[in-house]
Design brief:
The chain is mainly beta and 398 residues long. The chain has helices at residues 2-16, 19-23, 41-44, 67-71, 335-340; strands spanning 25-36, 51-61, 76-85, 94-108, 113-125, 154-169, 172-184, 195-206, 229-239, 249-261, 266-277, 300-312, 315-326, 360-369, 374-383, 386-397. The strands form 2 sheets. Strands 1-2-3-4-5-6-7-8 form an 8-stranded antiparallel beta barrel. The longest helix has 15 residues, at 2-16.
Amino acid sequence: MKYSLLSLLFILLANSLQAQTSEQYSFKFQGIYGHILPHDKHVTLLVENPVKGAELSIEFQTMGEKPWQQFNAFPIIGLGTVWLDLGNPQRLGNAFAVYPYISFPLIRSRYFNLNLKAGAGASYLTKNYKNTNKNSHGEILPFDSTNTAIGFPLNVYFSGGGSLEIPISKGLSLTAEYTWNHMSDGSAVVPNSGLNLLNGFLGVKYFPNYKKFNFPSKQILNEIPHKFTFEVIASGGFRQLYYLDNKTYPIASLVFSAYRPISNNYRMGLGIDAFYDGVYDGTSLYTRNYITTNELKNKLRVGTSWQHELMLGRLTAGIDFGIYLYDPLKNTAPYADAKSGNLNKPLIYPYNITYEDGWFYTRAKLKYALDNHLFLSLGLKTHLQKAEFIEWGLGYRF
């Protein structure tokens, strides 16, 4: 599952390395120092020492062979490999990640370059719940004394932040970054609090072919037509709800969206989202939603979303912000309140994400066009910082 995400992003990398771009490569090595954000009580118990590590990456300066490169101000495409000591050897261990990324220029000058960097890939963590929940005698440890943040060794890896480059000699630069990094499995295997990190980077970058480099010049290109397009996406997947249930359930979603480009590299849209989540069958031991019967209505939700996407040739990447219009689950949580009496919440209401999902959802997504109509889709649906599930989909654009 995680390798499919990595493969989709490799397509972007390979699809962008035309002859001129492939010659403009550089190597970057950086040390990493940061910390884990204690975003819930389980992660708080795992945080001991600072995060330390290193990243080795290769970068390619795009040269404008494709229109999207010019529309995005000739960004840098990179592939990073990461090692992290997570500061708790017994329960968190080390993390290794491989991820493609793209750096969009914010400021280019003679003295420094400032970029906005974003990427996603796959990560492997040496410690997870399954290999930390027993002592040396094989006895089960109390839940909060083990790794309650990571349920499975393979996880997604997200990176986003700022990147600074300062030339110090021909072909050599100092580099610095400050990024948010995230690792989780999208609740495919629980427990899955996930890890959120804030990391600082400091290092050097070497550009071997600096003598042959001439920065690309802008060409006159046709504007992207500012007309409406429509999409429908059918997605599926699976997830778990509670580690003691020992069950995996199917999930599905159907999305219909209308988009209009606002510029040559950005489009905005509105969508209708229908979700099916099989975990709410009334059998879970998890005291979050008070559900005692297996009814279809508790597995269905419908919402509307405000959608934002960057257009990068065949690939688009974006985020949706949604609000539930139909949500029977809202009256099943918090557990104690739902058990003691009937709840009747309005469309928008105050809530605590620790005890209920609430009325607001988001989706981080990637789409890759196979032709003018068909495309692959990958989404991560969340309620604030809590991942709900990963959506694997096929879409049609018309």
